[in-house]
Amino acid sequence: MQNSYAASYKFIRSVSTDIHEIGSSERPSSPCTTYETPDAPPLPLLLLFKRLLWSLGLFAVLYLPCSSYAQQSRPEYSRLNTVSFFGKYSNNSSRIVLGAAEDRRIVSLGAGYERRIFHGKGIAFSYLGEISPVVLLRDPTRTILFILPTGLQTFIERDVPTVRKCFPFTSRSPQLTAEFSCGGRWTYAYEISPAGFKINLATHHRLQPSIIGSVGYLQADRIVPVVGSNSFNFLFQFGAGLELFRSPSRSWRAECRFQHYSNDDIADVNPGVDSVVYKVSYSFGR
Fold it and tell me: Which fold has domain 81-140+161-166+184-285?
């Protein structure tokens, strides 16, 4: 910085000396001689050019160092290491991409860790790992009750998970009455997603858009989502969100993710579950 100031000073001084010489050459050599003219002569082109250079040099000396200092002092909202706690919720599932199981709900609580790998102009790329020790899965169930004319009741199915959304109805005939009722069951599980990424954009701003993606697995304490499937399921998810920084070290983030889990045909039945998951996180780090 000191070298640039010294070079600029020498440049301005030389330009000022040239301007002084050009101006003095146009005046009479004798101090007693009067110089009168009704109209001021036009400035030489060389003098105009040198004045322009002098102005540009002054601009470079005064403005550019201030601009560079302003960029350096601008706060950067990007952490090297980040820990977050989050909650996720999905109210429904449908046939979005790969899954066929419908009307599933997901509630989960967990934590995540981020490690920044790359940081460029307005962009940050980070490793992302997440674990959810508490995951609750709700599957729709169906119960089929046969009622004979004698009053005898027999359950054909009782709280059996269905692939499609369940609708209650009753079918009657002189020989039999069949009642189809619907319910739901909750299953405990946990998720681990050890391989993921997170991209933050506009890192000079408090409000930053982000893109995430991760892969992992889901382990339940019983077979999900239907009979014949597996308690172990592969899991992948991707989505986008907005992160609001309260300070360079603390932030809130809201995301919308597409999530899919299935057993990849390691079981006899593999309907798969596609869900749109909403996630809220609180993060801190440095």
Answer: Porin (2.40.160)
Summarised one tens digit per residue, pLDDT across range 197-243 is 999 999 999 999 999 999 999 999 999 999 999 999 999 999 999 99
What does DSSP say about strands 207-224 and 230-247: parallel, antiparallel, or unpaired? antiparallel
pLDDT (0 to 100) of residue 45? 52
Q: How far is CA 217 from CA 111, 192, 193, 258, 271, in A?
A: 15, 6, 6, 15, 16
Residues of the chain with pLDDT under 50: 2, 4-5, 8, 12, 15, 19-20, 22-43, 60, 63-64, 66-71
Sign of CA dihedral 111, 277, 270, 195: negative
The tokens describing 217, both together, are: 């697995």
pLDDT at 258: 96
pLDDT at 92: 93
**Apex CA 166: angle with CA 165 and CA 167, to 5°?**
120
The pLDDT of residue 105: 96
Asked if residue 200 lies in contact with residue 226, where contact means CB atoms within 8 angstroms, the answer is: no
pTM of the model: 0.71
HEC states along the chain? CHHHHHHHHHHHHHHHHHHHHHHHHCCCCCCCCCCCCCCCCCCCHHHHHHHHHHHHHHHHHHCHHHHHHHHHHCCCCCCCEEEEEEEEEECCECCCCCCCECCCEEEEEEEEEEEEEEEECCEEEEEEEEEEEEEEEEEEEEEEEEECCCCCEEEEEEEEECCCCCCCEEEECCCCEEEEEEEEEEEEEEEEEEEEEEEEECCCCCEEEEEEEEEEEEEEEEEECCCCCEEEEEEEEEEEEEEEEEECCEEEEEEEEEEEEECCCCCCCCCCEEEEEEEEEEEEEC
